[in-house]
Design a protein that fits this description.
With 100 residues, this protein is mainly beta. The chain is built from one helix and six strands; from the N terminus they run ββαββββ.
Amino acid sequence: MNKVFCKTKSVIAEHAKAGPLLDVEYVPDLSYTWEQVTAFFKQGKFALKFEGPEGVVTVQPVQVETATSLTDQPGILVGLGQNDPQQIPRGVRAWLEQLN
C-alpha cells in the first residue's frame, strides 16, 4: 500500500500542534482491511494530493489520524499544519500518499 483514497469534506477544528483538522471521507479499497489502513498511517510522513485545474496539487507535510465513528464508519482526520485549508476544495477526490 502506498496511498489511500479519500474525499475531502471540511475543516472541523483547529489543533494546537497539527493545525486545521480536515475531515476526509475514506474511499474503501477492498484489497485492504481498515486495520491495515490504520497501520499504514502509523508509519512515516504523508502528503494530501488531488487533481487541480493545472494538474496535481500536493499539500505536505500533513499529519494523519484514523478513527471509527459511533456508527462504525471509518474516518480520517488530516492535520494540515502550516498549510492553508482554503487551497483544498470541498468534495474533491483525493489521496493520502506516503512521503519517502
